Amino acid sequence: MSRKLTVDLADETTLSGAHSKALSLYTHVLWDFRVEGWQSLLMYAVRMALRCAYLTASVQEYIQLCLEYASFSNLPLGEGRRTVANLAQVFNVSDRCYPCALSSQKQRFVLRVPGSLAKYSRLSM
Predict the structure, then answer these.
(1) Do residues 69 and 30 make contact, with C-beta atoms less than 8 angstroms apart?
(2) In whole angstroms, what is the distance from residue 80 CA to residue 86 CA?
(3) How far, in Å, CA of 49 to CA of 36, rounded?
(4) Is the CB of residue 89 less than 8 Å from the CB of residue 81?
(5) Which residues contact 82 (CB under 8 A, 6 or more apart)?
(6) Do 42 and 27 meet the contact criterion of CB atoms below 8 Å apart?
């Protein structure tokens, strides 16, 4: 019962605009929902926490929640792809922010990829 109240409080906090507090409330109930096997409640809490992480620009939380949300097997059509595409954009933004720092990392990665796989690496130099 206390978890239900925590989710309700997180929903109200989200509506009021305090997304960082709502994110911490949602993340507190995620573990309990995972352990007890409440998949629909877990999916709802992860989706709402994902929104809050996006709105607060919490990159680490956003990446973790994206991976968890995309791993659900009963997502609506296209939701998993959209989540993975958004996650890929998070990593592409860092490429535009620090091009000098990442260019040497890309070169090292491409050098380690075997010749037959280099054409599939999707890394542009």
Answers:
(1) no
(2) 10
(3) 19
(4) no
(5) none
(6) no
User: Rounded to two decimals, what is the model's pTM?
Assistant: 0.69
d(CA 46, CA 65): 6
Largest CA distance in the chain: 57
Side chain identity at residue 123, one-letter code: L
Nearest CA to 51 out of 62, 41, 42 is that of: 62
Residue that has been written with the tokens 């995309």 in this structure: 70
Domains of the chain: 2-120 (1.25.40)
Cα-atom radius of gyration of the chain, to the nearest Å?
A: 18
pLDDT, one tens digit for every residue, the chain (125 residues): 678 888 988 999 989 999 999 999 999 999 889 898 888 889 999 999 999 999 998 889 999 999 889 888 888 878 888 888 888 888 876 545 555 544 554 444 444 444 444 444 444 44
